Amino acid sequence: MQRHAMAIQRVANEVTDVTNDRYDMAIVGAGIVGLAHALAAVRAGMRVVVIDRDAQANGASVRNFGFVTVTGQEQGAVWRRARRSRDVWAEVGREAGIAIEQVGLAMVAQRPEALAVLEAFMATDMADGCTLLDGAAARARLGEVRPRDLAGVLFSGIDLRVESRTAIPKLAAWLAERHGVTFRRGVAVRGVETGRVETSAGPMRADTIIVCPGDDLATLFPDVLARAGVTRCKLQMLRLAAPGFRLPGAVMSDLGLVRYRGYSALPAAAAIAARLKVEQGEHLANGVHLIVTQSADGSLIVGDSHHYAATPDPFASSAVDALILDEFAAVFGFVPPVIERWTGTYASAGGHSIVETPCDGVRLVVVTSGTGASTSFALAEEVIGDLTNVRSGASA
Ligand SMILES: Cc1cc2nc3c(=O)[nH]c(=O)nc-3n(C[C@H](O)[C@H](O)[C@H](O)COP(=O)(O)OP(=O)(O)OC[C@H]3O[C@@H](n4cnc5c(N)ncnc54)[C@H](O)[C@@H]3O)c2cc1C
Question: Which helix (H) or strand (E) holds 351?
Fold first, then answer.
């Protein structure tokens, strides 16, 4: 009985602790989108709490390639966000002890139509930091990566890669230790209104609340997310054993030219799209394209596929894996053993992201294009900058 009373008292204390804390900003979600907002907020001088229902990062932000992709992002605002976010990763990486595992991208053109897209790309302002090689020069630069067919290769020295599984926890730890961000893990947020967050550990108060729920479309503001047409996308991923050499950068192939809008929006992309439809229709039907990144131990992260549903099934299909590995073999000339498989999901809609104001002092921020690792830091700076302007405008 006494033990029971003590337990009630302890819970009451915890609730009181939470209730008494007042923050400038509360952030729901400790994925990369939430952490990026925490960084922008502390840089703006705010006292921040991040709340996540999971005990440790478990969402898209730790399931991805860790590929901070600039080259190939949609021309204009998205590309600029990726450029800025890449610089933030480089800077934060140094301070937080997050290694940049790889620098650069080798975009392999296997067909003449693909090379034509890369030539058109080189004539745009997005080609800053890129070189296009063909023939012997391309083969020499690719080293041990030996595509069955090679029309040319675009090398970018801009793109970065971090090991997301360790980078995201390190980023959170650095935000806590260096910037005093409070993390409340294992706490589910049930409701958000102006100035107040209802959590499984009691209510919390904050002047501003940023909701970054990733692909949870059901718990917070489901009506807003439904109106924005947000659904979910499931991806299959593989880790292959170390091939015994270092890649010249992340590696992509022709299939990427029809997925990444920085290439696919160019008029020159029509011809490769038509040819791929005939030659790799099954890959396209499963949203398969090739990204290969490399970890410090030499192993390769290889993906991926794209299947869309409100609730995607959790099963990794071996037929889809075979399509991914088929493209890997076409570019590398061999396939090392598969040592790990997993699936991931992210929120998906037509545009890059949604930033909504469901009520005063609250922002709902969701990256809906599968580019959160590449663009969140800049997006968060925009959101926090906008909020800071609103606040100073209101008090002026
Ligand atoms: C397999 C895969 C590969 C990818 N590859 C890349 C890549 O190479 N480059 C790239 O730029 N992007 C990539 N992406 C996309 C990128 O990972 C996502 O855009 C990004 O991680 C989304 O971040 P997030 O913070 O919104 O979501 P998440 O990482 O899913 O985090 C959301 C968090 O919110 C928490 N949460 C939700 N609701 C609540 C609630 N009510 N209460 C408390 N907590 C809540 C969840 O627990 C979760 O921790 C990939 C995605 C996948 C799945």
Answer: strand 338-356
The crossing angle, in degrees rounded to 10, of helices 77-96 and 164-179 is: 70
Neighbour-count burial of 195, counting CB atoms closer than 10 A to its CB (0-12 exposed, 13-18 middle, 19+ buried): middle
Ligand 1 pocket residue status of 52, Cβ below 6 Å: yes
Whole-prediction pTM: 0.94
> Which residue's C-alpha comes closest to atom 40 of ligand 1?
189
Note the Cα 180 to chain centre separation in Å: 25
Q: Rounded distance, CA 142 to CA 105, Å?
A: 11
Ligand 1, pocket-test mutation among 18, 64, 369, most atoms within 8 A of CB = 64
For atom 35 of ligand 1, the residue with the nearest CA is 29
Measured from the Cβ of residue 257, the count of other Cβ atoms closer than 10 Å reads 28
* C-beta of 59 in contact with ligand 1 (< 6 A): yes
Distance CA 177, CA 163 (A): 21
Whether the CB of 78 sits within 6 Å of ligand 1: no
Distance CA 291, CA 256 (A): 8
pLDDT in tens, 56-95: 999 999 999 999 999 999 999 999 999 999 999 999 999 9
Instruction: Pull the structure tokens for residue 307.
Output: 């299947």
Q: Please report the sign of the dihedral spanned by the C-alpha atoms of residue 25, residue 26, residue 31, residue 34.
A: negative
147-163 confidence digits (pLDDT tens) = 999 999 999 999 999 99
